[in-house]
Specification:
homodimer, 321 residues, alpha/beta, Nucleotidyltransferase, domain 5, 2 domains, 5-stranded mixed beta sheet, 12 helices, 13 strands, globular
Chain lengths: 321, 321
């Protein structure tokens, strides 16, 4: 008996979710009752055709591993970086994937024989994190990875905003004399707590530069101590922006830097407490109690993509409307 | 024939809205079809009892002036600074009014003989501005007065957030070396573009210190030139925060500083354009095209309060639950 049989699956009942990152795809299979019944990771190809191939192959491999037929897939959702038109499933400027323009929903949908819905990866992760945590109310998902961005979820729905920049807190400047940002501004939150910006500022070789910075800071390296302070300061600034604009109840932190675990969480919490030390107003917000970290390796992004895939694509609503 | 008769009013049909400020109350009467059929301003009393008296007297004077009977008032809405529990109508810490704790909805309601709903003044103004402009979609109302705060309206509803700090962008720090803020932090947006902070930094006597700053800056005073730049820089930062977090389609600027009119609007727009000059990302947001100023003396806040008063009070929903 396969896992899928054990989960009581029959016919087209598996919702697949894929988080397509710069180096790997995280794929999950979700049963009708919302359980993750299979998961695997595979490398991502480079360029438009290879990305489509990677997605299709990941679904096939997931089906083999979790014991369901590819024809059991009732829907697929894909979270992917870059500019995503969630209505059409088109992806633009996903530079880390070598993608300039890709009609991902159409091309993957044709090959998979199932409807495909595509969403920005941070928004998908935000929805997945909200659902995994069972959080009602409002929540922001703050992604600390190479870059920094957030997704906002209210009452189980992604907050899309007017023009697709909801949660783009990484490019708010919090220091006019700060480091230059790739976006052309100075002192953006991302220059303080983005893994890419910290690695460039550190400038020494290493597979995990932010971990190296924390280790060197623990050993007393003054440059590392300053960069560590930047990391926590920048993440705390992002939390403040999210609470003092959208007023979300909780800020859940995810992304590659969560591999730092307790060291990251403790540092951000300390930065929030330090800010509250001098401000009764900030103290009244209890920000240090309103954050938590996703576990490293959380399937939130792929799970969120599966949920998005299961929703009716916008373009179907339009064509039947 | 009175104005009210002319508007085709009969029985209890007038919705009253009051914007209670530190020095004056702005009161409007709204007909069943949503037109403002009367308006007046009166001084605000100091302290709990005097605030209640001022509200009741303003409604009576409005009725006389607009030609309706006090018994025609079907509901009243009050926008007021301070911490407002919109469910109970209780106001806390309205320091500019001498109010520590005031059950304003109950006390004014008993005297007016009509249900009273109370809301934070910036949120009320945000709703009023959205309705006066007929804006669907999403909008932030950025209030530049003595202090700085915003209200967010989405699809005709006030965005309340989780704990009452939605839109509190005035106390986000955008410069760690900036001026000390009354909230205990440094470099808050309010220290750049709040009328109170600018007046303190300017430090010279005058009835309209921010206007004096602009005049002196036009005349070449270097200190005034720097403060003028702060004003526009801070307001531009607030616009960026609102668009890069909640992603509102438009930011409508109101509050006392709108008395500066075109000089204020042009300055903020220039600051947004200057920021976009060095950043393709910022250019893509077209922020300079997404702001506009309410006319000085706009009835937005009182009108919004009238709309809020006309909605069913939350506590009634609970008690009939």
């Amino acid at each position: 008996m396969t896992d899928a049989d054990a989960a009581g699956l029959d016919g087209r009942s598996i919702r697949v979710g894929l988080d397509v990152g710069g180096t790997k795809i995280d794929a999950v299979a979700v049963s009708p009752d919302g359980q993750i019944v299979g998961r695997l990771r595979r490398p991502t190809g480079w360029g438009e055709d290879a990305v489509v191939d990677s997605v299709v192959e990941a679904v096939a491999a997931l089906a083999r591993e979790a014991g369901f037929a590819p024809s059991d897939v009732v829907s697929a959702g894909i979270g992917i970086p870059g500019l995503v038109d969630s209505g059409t499933g088109r992806v633009l400027h996903a530079v880390n994937l070598g993608v300039e323009t890709l009609d991902l929903a159409d091309r993957a949908g044709d090959r998979l024989g199932a409807p495909v819905h595509v969403e920005n990866d941070v928004k998908a992760a935000a929805l997945g994190a909200a659902m995994l945590r069972g959080a009602g109310g409002s929540m922001a998902y703050l992604n600390l990875g190479t870059g920094v961005a957030a997704g906002i979820v209210v009452d189980g729905r992604i907050w899309r905003g007017a023009r697709g920049t909801a949660g783009e807190v990484g490019h708010l400047s919090v220091d006019p004399n700060g480091r230059a940002c790739g976006c052309g501004q100075r002192g953006c939150i991302e220059t303080f707590c983005g893994g890419g910006a910290l690695a460039r500022a550190w400038g020494r070789p290493g597979a995990l530069p932010v971990r190296d910075i924390l280790d060197a800071a623990d050993a007393g390296d003054p440059e590392a101590v300053a960069l560590r302070a930047d990391l926590f300061h920048g993440a705390a600034a992002a939390v403040r922006v999210l609470v003092l604009s959208a007023d979300v109840e909780r800020v859940v932190i995810g992304g590659g830097l969560t591999a730092l675990g307790e060291r990251l969480e403790r540092g951000i919490r300390s930065a929030l407490l330090a800010g509250a030390g001098s401000s009764a107003f900030m103290r009244s917000l209890h920000l240090d109690e309103r954050i938590d970290l996703l576990p490293a390796g959380s399937p939130a992004a792929a799970f969120g993509a599966a949920l998005i895939g299961a929703s009716v694509p916008s373009k179907e609503i339009v064509s039947h409307g």
